[in-house]
């Protein structure tokens, strides 16, 4: 038997699995109530409109006339239709046959890499969402990390003179919250086209972008010639446990659109009717309002955390387009050192920058929490003696 040696290149555990164990241990040992601001998992129950729509859909499955089996390979038209409308509102023209409904961004960030040859060269600006890079390591690709810096708000600049087959960009970034401007994205699009690369654009947090900002790479000229966009309903609708998202493979990318369809045929049986009906409720005035309310709730949480960090004179990425706060460790502390200090002294779980494949002294605080826990966490941080 020959196993895949590339697993040996990964850390022993996925960072959020490691954190879950840490929280479990701390909950047993600590006298403080542990507040988990580690993994970015939504905490509020689903808005009623999404839960009601799924309840109706579930009931349909119990009747002969409305029962459904396998969903259409690339998703139900009622959902794809809503997605097309959403793109039009965001300034991009996407057609239904360019959309593939998926079970979310995490799996897709690795799945799309299967369209390309084995051992390709893949660029990841870091800090980055680790699942995307790890999937490429597992596929045996040559993964190259491009460190970004605080002076640029961690927004990467194209490495002119070097070439890659795939370039992963995430905006607003997980973990730093930095959102690309039109011109910043245009520079990556021009670079990708001139070096024959494909951009894999992770837009999992795109609904968190402030109005007036760029919510899709396809709003930028030239993007359909070089970019695949991956989106998810997890963070915007609270669907981390429901699972639904979509991937856009433009027809301008030639064979990639049909190959993607072929890949799904071989590898995926689609997303449940119930999940897709729930997601489609977003494309109604009531659904949009409910989702926006949740997004603003989490962004307000992030602002509350920032007040406490300011009091401590700690640097943080002041993005208004993100549910994450990326914080510089106090002088002399590593990312793990600060994360441990927050857990031991404040009972707060955070994610060290190491988890985002970044060699810098930062931690990420997730604002996906209840207001009560965020206020409690902010007070504990403000009272910390550094
Ligand atoms: C995070 O960044 O916290 C992720 O969304 C968790 C994950 O899906 O791995």
Brief rundown of the structure:
The relative contact order is 0.17. This protein has 12 helices and 12 strands.
Main beta sheet strand tally, sense and closure:
7 strands, mixed
Mean pLDDT: 97
CATH topology of the largest domain: Aspartate Aminotransferase, domain 2
Bound molecules: D-malate
Give the overall form. globular
Describe the structure.
The protein has 386 residues and is α/β, with parallel strands linked by helices. It folds into 2 domains: 5-46 and 288-382, Aspartate Aminotransferase, domain 1 (Alpha-Beta Complex), CATH 3.90.1150.10; 48-285, Type I PLP-dependent aspartate aminotransferase-like (Major domain) (Aspartate Aminotransferase, domain 2), CATH 3.40.640.10. It has 12 helices and 12 strands. Helix 4 runs parallel beside helix 5 (130-138) and helix 10 (285-311) packs parallel to helix 12 (371-383). It is globular and about 60 Å long. The mean pLDDT is 97. The site of D-malate (MLT) has 7 residues, from loops.
């Amino acid at each position: 038997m020959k196993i895949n040696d590339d697993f040996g290149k990964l850390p022993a555990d996925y960072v959020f699995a490691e954190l879950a164990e840490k929280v479990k241990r701390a909950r047993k040992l600590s006298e403080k109530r542990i507040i988990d601001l580690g993994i970015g998992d939504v905490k509020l129950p689903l808005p009623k409109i999404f839960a009601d729509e799924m309840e109706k859909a579930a009931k349909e499955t119990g009747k002969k006339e409305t029962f459904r089996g396998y969903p259409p390979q690339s998703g139900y038209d009622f959902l794809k239709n809503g997605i097309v409308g959403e793109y039009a509102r965001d300034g991009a023209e996407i057609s239904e046959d360019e959309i593939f409904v998926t079970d979310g961004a995490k799996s897709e960030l690795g799945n799309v890499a299967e369209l390309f040859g084995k051992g390709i060269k893949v660029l990841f600006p870091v800090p980055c969402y680790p699942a995307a890079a790890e999937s490429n390591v597992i596929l045996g690709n040559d993964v190259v990390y491009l460190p970004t810096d605080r002076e640029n708000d961690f927004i990467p600049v194209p490495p002119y003179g070097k070439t890659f087959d795939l370039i992963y960009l995430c905006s607003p970034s997980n973990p730093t919250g930095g959102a690309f401007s039109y011109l910043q994205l245009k520079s990556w699009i021009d670079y990708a086209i001139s070096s024959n690369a494909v951009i894999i654009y992770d837009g999992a947090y795109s609904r968190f972008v402030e109005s007036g900002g760029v919510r899709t790479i396809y709003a930028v000229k030239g993007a359909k010639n070089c970019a695949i966009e991956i989106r998810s309903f997890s963070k915007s609708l609270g669907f981390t446990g429901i699972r639904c998202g979509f991937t856009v493979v433009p027809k301008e990318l030639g064979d990639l659109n049909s190959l993607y369809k072929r890949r799904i045929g071989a590898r995926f049986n689609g997303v449940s009717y119930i999940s897709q009906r729930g997601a489609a409720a977003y494309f109604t005035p009531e659904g949009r309002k409910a989702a926006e309310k949740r997004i603003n709730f989490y962004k307000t949480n992030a602002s509350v955390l920032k007040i406490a960090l300011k009091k401590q004179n700690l640097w943080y990425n002041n993005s208004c387009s993100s549910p994450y706060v990326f914080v510089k460790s106090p002088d002399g502390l590593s990312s793990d050192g600060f994360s441990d200090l927050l857990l031991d002294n404040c009972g707060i779980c955070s994610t060290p920058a190491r988890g985002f494949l970044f060699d810098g002294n930062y931690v990420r605080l997730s604002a996906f929490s209840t207001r009560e826990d965020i206020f409690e966490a902010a007070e504990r941080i403000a009272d910390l003696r550094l």
